[in-house]
Design goal:
single chain
Length: 119
């Protein structure tokens, strides 16, 4: 049986380093580094060495190419990948237009690269 795609936005695989701060009730509960696994215009799947509680607020600085973009987001889901690594899906809550343009460009480049026929 074919699975139905429910996402509104295209999601592309993209490994980018990030710095994040996790807050709950405006109190910092964790800070650290991680990386993106995939990116879309509405959110990111990220990987860290610590679990991020669902509904936590996150502040991220993400390095995409030569750009550093800043995003405020909420954790939508989080799960262990193995004993030492966790994946978390986040949804943007506050992202400026210049950061969104960087993400759109990343998606556009990825789509062009994957659309090229093999020689």
């Amino acid at each position: 049986m074919k699975e139905i795609e429910r996402r509104k936005n295209i999601r592309v695989s993209s490994l980018n380093l990030l710095d994040l701060t996790v807050t709950e009730d405006e109190i910092i509960v964790n800070q650290g580094m991680g990386r993106t696994l995939n990116v879309s215009e509405s959110g990111i799947l990220l990987e860290t060495h610590f679990q991020i509680p669902v509904k936590s607020a996150l502040t991220l600085a993400v390095a995409i190419g030569n750009d550093l973009i800043y995003i405020n987001a909420n954790a939508i889901h989080s799960a262990p990948k193995d004993e030492k690594i966790f994946t978390t899906g986040i949804q943007y809550m506050d992202i400026d237009q210049s950061a969104l343009q960087v993400i759109r460009k990343l998606i556009e480049v990825f789509q062009r690269q994957t659309a090229k026929p093999s020689p």
